[in-house]
Specification:
Mean pLDDT: 86
Helix content: 40-55%
CATH class: Alpha Beta
Strand order of the largest sheet: 2-1-3-4
Radius of gyration: 14 Å
Distance between the termini: 37 Å
Oligomer: single chain
Number of strands: 4
Low-confidence stretches: none
Order of helices and strands: EHEHHEEHHH
Shape: globular
């Protein structure tokens, strides 16, 4: 379990993913977020239950509550761990529209990532 902090599982071979990870760490003034590459052995205890495609198909976060979430919802949860963006994250998560918007934005970024990698 993550304990008191947050775990961010990201694709270390993806420039966009690594940029997001670095951005999170710059804003994480309380050092509550620890990042772990998806393909590392350190991620296995947390992500082993996910199939290969699910594990490597998106980013994931594990919060202090032990809940593992993925994709846009994971972005919202990790933003909630950051002092400057916690309120914004809570606002988006408070309604269905905010969550849908986060999922759509995440899907758009993944589509862009795939297009740029070709």
């Amino acid at each position: 379990m993550a304990g008191r902090g947050w775990l961010l599982f990201y694709d270390a071979d993806c420039g966009l993913c690594t940029f997001f990870r670095n951005w999170v760490h710059r804003l994480d003034l309380r050092h509550r977020v620890r990042s772990i590459p998806l393909g590392s052995r350190e991620a296995d205890p947390y992500l082993a239950r996910l199939g290969h495609d699910r594990r490597y198909g998106s980013m994931h976060t594990l919060g202090p509550d032990g809940n593992l979430v993925s994709e846009g919802r994971a972005v919202l949860r990790i933003l909630g761990a950051l002092p400057m963006l916690g309120g914004f994250s809570r606002l988006l998560r408070s309604g269905e529209r905010g969550t849908v918007a986060a999922e759509l934005a995440y899907t758009a970024l993944v589509t862009l990532r795939i297009a740029l990698s070709r």
